[in-house]
């Protein structure tokens, strides 16, 4: 079953990478901090690295994301469609437990370029995600999630970008609680092929 998930992800990602020769394509690497929350209308982030509501607070877990990206330019605006497939290490700390959640994600964003040389980037989009493994500390009912995400970044050169990314999940991790996940990351992108 795991092999078929990887094959499906590889097929979907390679299908959009292979059909456009004059678009930017490259590698994405990021440091992430992730956490969980109960969405009762108040998402609280504390200065000591914990988050949650009331007694339901967790502390951040560090991780990484690694993947490939593609940019498809828009003809009518100085922007592009950004698509990235990546492995992401999510999770959170709850008292003495560390909960690991490892996902395959596909970011799909509309990105607008700003500045004299189009060096500033702002983007919004969605990230479908599929859970490929998790630790036994939490029971997971749904392996699928949809996340809203935003990108704010800077073009360092024609082949390198640095950006912050935030994601928040819409779907709960299990049916017995409203527990959902979120992520903040600092990413570097290096273009292998550039238009």
Written description of the protein model:
By secondary structure, this protein is mainly beta. The chain has one helix at residues 2-18, and strands spanning 25-37, 44-45, 50-53, 56-59, 61-73, 79-94, 97-114, 120-134, 144-155, 160-169, 180-193. The chain is built from one helix and eleven strands. The chain starts with a helix and ends with a strand. The protein is elongated. Strand 7 (97-114) and strand 8 form a beta hairpin. The relative contact order is 0.20. The longest helix has 17 residues, at 2-18. It has an eight-stranded antiparallel β-barrel with strand order 1-5-6-7-8-9-10-11. A three-stranded antiparallel sheet has the order 2-3-4, with no helix packed on it. The protein has a single domain (2-193), classed as Porin (Beta Barrel), CATH 2.40.160.
Task: Summarize, please.
The strands form two sheets. The chain has an eight-stranded antiparallel barrel. A three-stranded antiparallel β-sheet has the order 2-3-4, with no helix packed on it. A hairpin with a 4-residue loop joins strand 9 (144-155) and strand 10 (160-169).
């Amino acid at each position: 079953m795991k092999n078929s998930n990887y094959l499906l992800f590889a097929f979907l990602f390679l299908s959009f990478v292979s059909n456009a020769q004059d678009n930017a394509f490259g590698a994405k690497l990021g440091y992430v901090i992730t956490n969980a929350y109960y969405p009762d209308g108040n998402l609280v982030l504390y200065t000591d690295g914990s988050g949650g509501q009331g007694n339901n607070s967790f502390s951040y877990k560090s991780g990484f994301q690694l993947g490939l990206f593609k940019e498809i330019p828009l003809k009518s605006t100085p922007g592009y469609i950004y698509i990235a497939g990546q492995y992401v290490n999510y999770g959170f700390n709850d008292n003495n437990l560390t909960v690991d959640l490892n996902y395959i994600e596909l970011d799909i964003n509309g990105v607008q370029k700003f500045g004299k040389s189009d060096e500033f980037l702002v983007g919004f989009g969605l990230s479908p995600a599929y859970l490929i493994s998790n630790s036994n500390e939490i029971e997971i009912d749904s392996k699928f999630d949809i996340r809203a995400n935003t990108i704010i970044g800077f073009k360092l050169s024609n082949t390198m970008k640095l950006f912050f990314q935030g994601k928040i999940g819409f779907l709960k991790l299990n049916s017995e609680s409203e527990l959902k996940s979120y992520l903040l990351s600092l990413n570097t992108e290096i273009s292998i092929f550039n238009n």
